[in-house]
Amino acid sequence: METSTRHAPADESGGAKGPADAIVPHMKILVIEDDLEAAAYMTKAFREAGIVADHASDGESGLFMGSENSYDVMVVDRMLPRRDGIAVISELRKRGINTPVLILSALGQVDDRVAGLRAGGDDYLPKPYAFSELLARVEVLGRRKGAPEQDMVYRVGDLELDRLSHEVRRAGREILLQPREFRLLEYLMKNAGQVVTRTMLLEHVWDYHFDPQTNVIDVHVSRLRSKIEKDFDKPLLKTIRGAGYMIKDEG
Amino acid sequence: MTSRLRLMFRSTAVRLSALYILLFAICAAFLVVYVTAMSERILAQQTRENLVQEIGDIQRAYDRGGLNGMLRIMERRARQPGANLYVVAGPTGEILAGNVASLQPGVLDEQGWTRFPFSYRPFSESGPEREHMAIANVVFMENGLRVMIGRDLGEPGRFRGIVRRALMVALTIMGIGALFIWFGIGRNALKRIDRMSGASQKIMAGDLSQRLPVGRSGDEFDRLSESLNAMLGRIERLNEGLRQVSDNIAHDLKTPLTRLRNKAADALDEEDAGQRRAALEGIIAESDQLIRTFNALLMISRVEAGSIAAEISEVDLSAITADSCELYEPVAEEAGLRLETSIAPGLRVKGNRELIGQAMFNLLDNAIKYSAGSAGEPLVHVVLIADATGIRLSVCDNGPGVPEEKREEVVKRFVRLDASRSKPGTGLGLSLVEAVMELHGGALRLSATNQENAQAPGLTATMVFPPLTS
């Protein structure tokens, strides 16, 4: 099924490429999760995706390890023994640790997400989640340090997107996009080379925070794809089966 | 027995009556003291008035008949039974005449009322008696004689004793009565409470059909039992409903789980690597669908429980509607449908944007899914209007629609009219929309878009929001 978002961690689809050609070679993350089985699965899957994952099983030790400030991303469970996940994040932020944090929560989506982000979390993923979704988000968060936040022009291969003038060109030829298509492309190009899931697109382009469940996002992406790839030989926008989309210049 | 007594003291009724008895005892003691003091005062007052009158009489006798006249009347009066005290003394205080044998020294030294009761020995033929207490008025006459008229206090004292005894007896009887009543009430209350907790034990053990005993008196215990029984009835009905829902859920989850299991078995047998991969992917897709179903179920429960209500604020319903239509427009186009909108601008409601958005997505998804390829006009029409009764957001399709008698049914969890389940979906979409509308104080209404068209009457799903009150 095309819309599937879960995939085996070792499988070559999605961001999981196997240790040899990992997308992010030197990312080091901290997983604070009290469910040991889930943590073991996560660290193994992250390792297979080329990410070094340390594990802390309660809030206190998580805070202690996180305070070293040597991690690129932290994945924090909302409910932790000895110190609540939200409390760990607020304490880390108080200590001046600005490592991006992704909150995992078994609680519902709407209200809990707001509480998590208010405490200083950067992203939020409700349980149960697909690992591909978690991986994509962790990779985007980890890259954020070097993300071209100030770049006014994003480039992927011969595709150019000007964030100021809202102009999109490919090989010098102007491509006309609807405002929503522009934002879709902008988000994809900002995270070029990284898997972006359907949920992430719905979040950043439409500002809704739930699993779209249907193929709505795919329809928009395929419209965008036809606009930027029609009349050009080289495909740029790839569908990553079981995960989402990625824009990348294979050349 | 002691444990029973202790139990009894733990009962509210018994504790209350114990408190009442204590209060009663304090009041009774106060009453005894007060009544005796009051009666004593009245008696003393009467004694004084009586003495003043006597003095007047004797004064008049003296005026008329001189000393002899006075002595005569005093002597006559002194002989009467229960007589007052009469003393005529010389200027130095020696008793000259009267019915008193001796007096406490100093009584005759001052004119007027004696300040305190004093002791005296009454004169009697059989010799001096024991000391009595009395009060008296002393008058100094011009000739130097001192006349004292007094009253023995024995009688008021006796009266006080009688009053006190009578009161004590009455109060003791009342107290004993109260104790008996207390014991009776306590025991009765305890017995009934025992019966009620016995019934509750059975209910707690799982027998929800049990009811608490209701007596005929209609007192507070019976009223309590009746309302608890009504509550139990409601719980039983809810429980029954819940059991049905979980039965449905179990049934509806069994099918995909069985499919999942069969696919896994197939994958295990698959020799060809590519085929096995495809089978595994199918398994993942199937699991994803299950996870979605669970997520949707959880979401509905949370919305129904109202635990999401924290994030309700004023939102722009027109913008949400326009956004969702924009999101679904290409989907409709791909399904060969037109998506038309008539959206009144700037309509605001109190709500949660995420939830309304998700409800809207569900309705649009349904409309597109069910009217694609139907006999009706390939059109989905979204209308947002406001009037006095509220704000109505309708998604109208021209698909096969939902027969009137089934409209209540399709909103329930896992109910899908499409028996073959050929269209993808969890059967939870409308349940979520309804839960969201209930959270917003509104309602979901289902009707036919075009009643006359028997082939494709279509379905109009309307979200009715209460008007925004400022």
Automatic annotation (TrEMBL), chain A:
DNA-binding region(s), residue ranges: 151-249
Sequence ranges assigned to domain OmpR/PhoB-type in this UniProt record: 151-249
Domain named Response regulatory: residues: 28-142
Alphabetical list of CDD domains matching this protein: REC_OmpR_CusR-like, trans_reg_C
UniProt entry keywords in alphabetical sequence: DNA-binding, Phosphoprotein
Stored InterPro entries: CheY-like_superfamily, OmpR/PhoB-type_DNA-bd, Sig_transdc_resp-reg_receiver, WalR-like, WH-like_DNA-bd_sf
Entry-annotated residues carrying 4-aspartylphosphate: D77
PROSITE patterns to which the protein is assigned, alphabetical: OMPR_PHOB (PS51755), RESPONSE_REGULATORY (PS50110)
Protein name: Two-component system OmpR family response regulator
TrEMBL record, chain B:
EC number: 2.7.13.3
Transferase recorded as keyword: yes
Catalytic activity: ATP + protein L-histidine = ADP + protein N-phospho-L-histidine
Span of domain HAMP: 187-240
Pfam families: HAMP (PF00672), HATPase_c (PF02518), HisKA (PF00512)
Enzyme class at the top of the EC tree: transferase
Keyword line: Kinase, Membrane, Phosphoprotein, Transferase, Transmembrane, Transmembrane helix, Two-component regulatory system
Subcellular location, principal: membrane
A GO MF label: kinase activity
Histidine kinase domain sequence ranges: 248-469
PROSITE patterns, per the entry: HAMP, HIS_KIN
InterPro entries per UniProt: HAMP_dom, HATPase_C_sf, HATPase_dom, His_kinase_dom, HisK_dim/P_dom, HisK_dim/P_sf, Sig_transdc_His_kin-like_C, TCS_sensor_his_kinase
Localization per record: Membrane
Transmembrane segments: 20-38, 166-185
CDD domains in the cross-refs: HAMP, HisKA
Family annotation (PANTHER family): HISTIDINE KINASE (PTHR45436:SF8), SENSOR HISTIDINE KINASE YKOH (PTHR45436)
Protein name (database record): histidine kinase
Organism: Pseudorhizobium tarimense
